[in-house]
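Subject: Sanity check before I submit

Could someone independently write out the structure tokens for this chain? I want to compare against mine line by line before I put it in a report. The sequence has 108 residues.
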Amino acid sequence: MARILILEDETESRKALEKMVRDISADITVDAAADLASARLLLGSAVSFDLFLLDVNLKPEKPGDLSGICFAEEIRRKRQYEFTPLVMVTSVSGMEMEAYRKLHCYQY
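---
Independent answer below. Compare away.
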């Protein structure tokens, strides 16, 4: 059985990602977070994740929710997730370069 953590602040996008993943197999457990604080709680829990789907841009009006890329860096600092696949997702066209610029979590 695989376990996936989804971090997506937009409700409809999060629900769509959850549905797509669950439709792949009944053997996949999905944990979804709408903000960075919830994702951090899940990451610190006793469960272990096999894949992360992370939104590139989170709502800037929430303190600390600047980028899923920052959360990806937090994940990588945990030894157990050193090689776990991370997939960055976005619904905004042209976000690839923006994500690249924010790679080191600079505030914008």
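---
OP: Matches mine. For the report I'm noting this point. Residues 11-24 form the longest helix (14 residues).
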